[in-house]
Amino acid sequence: MTRVFDGMARTLVRTFGGAVSITPVGGTARDIQAIFREIPFAFETENGRELRDIKPVLAARASDVADLRRGALVAPGNGKTYRYLSSQKLGSPSADGLTEIALELVE
Fold first, then answer.
1. Three-state secondary-structure class, residue 20
2. Which has fewest Cβ within 10 Å: 3, 32, 36, 58?
3. Predicted confidence band at 1 (pLDDT cuts at 50, 70, 90)?
4. Distance CA 98, CA 58 (A)
5. In the chain, which residue ranges form alpha helices assigned H by DSSP?
6. Is pLDDT larger for residue 26 or for residue 90?
């Protein structure tokens, strides 16, 4: 059943992504193909006021980012560096599916 999804992550990353430099904690920097996005979102404060912010995320093949943990660095080529916060595997049942990584800007 998962054969339908095999190779889909690679195709998506090649089509919509670009070169991204990742540095695992205690490791060496390397380039992978991944999709970097800055997603606008809104949230409500305790006093009912709405605030807007940007959520940076990286989508990559799970096998390419398997060694990343909290604190790893991501440089998507936009002149900024981000720190890995957490990740979650996206919907594909394929072993080669996509993982989405929540990032924070390193200042």
1. strand
2. 3
3. very low
4. 10
5. 8-16
6. 26
